[in-house]
Write a structure and sequence with these properties.
single chain, 102 residues, five-stranded mixed beta sheet
């Protein structure tokens, strides 16, 4: 697992999410931060969202860097989903790539 600062995670998630995520997602990283992510990017906030994903900060960073597969992280119980699991996989796919996902 990769160590990353809170600022690095916010910037990376924000860059990946801008104009690509439909709806909103809350990323909970216990002991680090809670992010609210939508098509405008990511901000540190505990605002309610359409779906909530919970994992250690290093898991989210590894997903965003393409090191960790979001579906595998979910199956290994490193990533908890509160909401629609199919939407969560789509969000994980968006966060783990810079390419536009259809």
């Amino acid at each position: 697992m990769t160590k990353a600062s809170k600022a690095e995670i916010v910037n990376l998630v924000s860059d990946r999410a801008k104009n690509r995520i439909k709806g909103s997602v809350r990323l909970e990283m216990p002991g680090t931060a809670t992010l609210y992510v939508d098509e405008t990017g990511a901000i540190e906030s505990d605002r309610a969202a359409d779906i909530t994903l919970t994992a250690e900060a290093s898991v989210f960073f590894d997903i965003a860097m393409g090191v960790k597969n979001p579906a595998k992280a979910f199956m290994m119980r490193q990533l908890k989903v509160d909401g629609n699991p199919m939407k969560a996989l789509k969000i994980g796919e968006i966060l783990s790539t810079t390419k536009k996902v259809s």
